[in-house]
TrEMBL record:
Organism in which the protein naturally occurs: Mytilinidion resinicola
Organism domain of life: Eukaryota
Key words of the record: Heme, Iron, Metal-binding, Monooxygenase, Oxidoreductase
Protein name per its UniProtKB record: Cytochrome P450
Annotated Pfam families: p450
Listed transmembrane segments: none
Length: 80
């Protein structure tokens, strides 16, 4: 899969911020799903996309609701 992923370019013209972007995505996306409930606004809506320089999506509307806060149990450190 990584072999054919060219969102950041390839070879001598690859994006210099690629590693920072991967790090941000690996932190942001799980945090988003951990803190919010995401549901489709209309499950029957048609998703359309146009792929030119950037991919433009239309018809993907999402309801976002903050999850209720729960008290976290304090975690024990491995050295306790």
């Amino acid at each position: 899969m990584h072999r054919f992923f060219f969102a950041f370019g390839s070879g001598a013209r690859s994006c210099i911020g690629r590693n920072i972007s991967w790090m941000e995505m690996s932190k942001l996306i799980p945090t988003l799903f951990m803190r919010y409930d995401l549901t489709l606004a209309d499950a029957n809506a048609e998703l359309t996309e146009k792929c030119w320089w950037f991919v433009i999506q239309k018809g993907l509307y999402v309801n976002v609701r903050r999850r209720q806060e729960t008290k976290e149990v304090p975690r024990r450190a491995w050295f306790d």
